[in-house]
Amino acid sequence: MTYDFDLFVIGGGSAGVRCARIAAGHGARVAVAEERFWGGTCVNVGCVPKKIMVNAAEYGMWAEDAAAFGWDIAVNGHDWAKLAAARDGEVTRLSSIYSRMLQGAGCTVFDARATLKDAHTIAVGGRTVTAERIVIAVGGRATRPEIPGAELGLISDDLFTLKALPKRVAVIGSGYIALEFACLLRGLGAEVEVIYRADLPLRGFDRDIRTSLVEAMQAQGIVMTADAKPVRIAEMGDCKLITLSTDFTREVDAVFFCTGRVPHTQGLGLEAAGVETKPNGAIVVDDDHATSQNHIFAIGDVTDRLNLTPMATAVGHALADTLFGDNPRRASYENVPTAVFTSPPIGTVGLAEHIAAERGPVDVYVTRFTPMRHTISKREGRKTLMKLVVDQATQRVLGAHMIGEDAAEIMQGIGIAVVMGATKQDFDRTIGIHPTAAEEFVTLRTRTRVAGVPAEPVHGYAAE
Q1: Which residue numbers are catalytic?
Q2: Is residue 455 part of a domain?
Q3: What CA–CA distances, in Å, run from 144 to 168, 199, 257, 260?
Q4: What is the C-alpha separation between 223 and 361, in angstroms, rounded?
Q5: pTM given for the model
């Protein structure tokens, strides 16, 4: 059968655009469809605009700290509209680049919704086309909890369309989006409370990092309310009244629901194409990202595996090389460096202590200190914590974790070492750059504790 395209990509975000562009570079006839905005969540309502707002919040803190270093700077408030205009201008610029890149690579671009009619047929922009292979990269979407009045709350996308800073904000959730929003809104001048069901936020992260973050957020005036969840929201004049599971109420100007995202697969026609999904809508894929139809692939957040932009682009690139570049390969999901842009930020790579300890005994090294800048500024809640988790038998560094200024920048370099399999002795013999916070990672000499127990043998062999 002759198809209209060798590859049709549904979704113009990070994963889809990278896959399409690389495939076209290998000579494939490629089409891409995007129904909302080029660049996907990250460029338009995620990483990029959020980081710009994080930067804005940091400038306020730096301006306040400047007096301790001899600067006479008056802080006269923040211009939300000016920030929004600068942020939106940059988002528009980056989004347009994605579309131009695809066209420059020779891809056919559809500014339209695409749906599957069968396993090789796509309806898009009033047309019906066919493709030998299909990649689904439609990403995810934010959700609201199923409680009375949920429609009165905002989702994460809505932060970037607000016309003014709400003065009193309740952030519902304990994932990285909730905590980043709480910190940047507080830094821009709002009163903020974070409400979450668990005892600590950031489930899955290292516990030392989680506890340190709570202390830091409380020090900057953010109220952290654990073991609670909203049960209803009602309007009260221009305000919102939240009732919690603890029977307490909160009166706020805005409620942000940061309670999770789900794959954006509804109405995509997956059933007609014979593509299997999980109960939450995530597409089931194998190690090569093939779906239950072996010529249809799914990449990025739609698979709900590791929902990070760099991971999505890496997988998209690897898939294009595999299908059209005569270079079969996979992008590894292990030891992926991650950052959380809270205040202070978090950087992490590899295994958390509790996960590593389940696999066998580990040596744990921890240091906590006030960075030099804040020994002068005297700002509360700016302690830096660094941590290495080391396999006791091989001395390989299994995990590195940090909360503190420049954590994300520092962790990118540490990530290379962990991915390469560096040992604690490799860290030890590396000379530190002085005076920096980063040098602490190569001067950790005293073991803080040992965690874990020897692995149980499996069928007479040592557990791997």
Answers
A1: 434
A2: no
A3: 20, 21, 6, 8
A4: 37
A5: 0.94
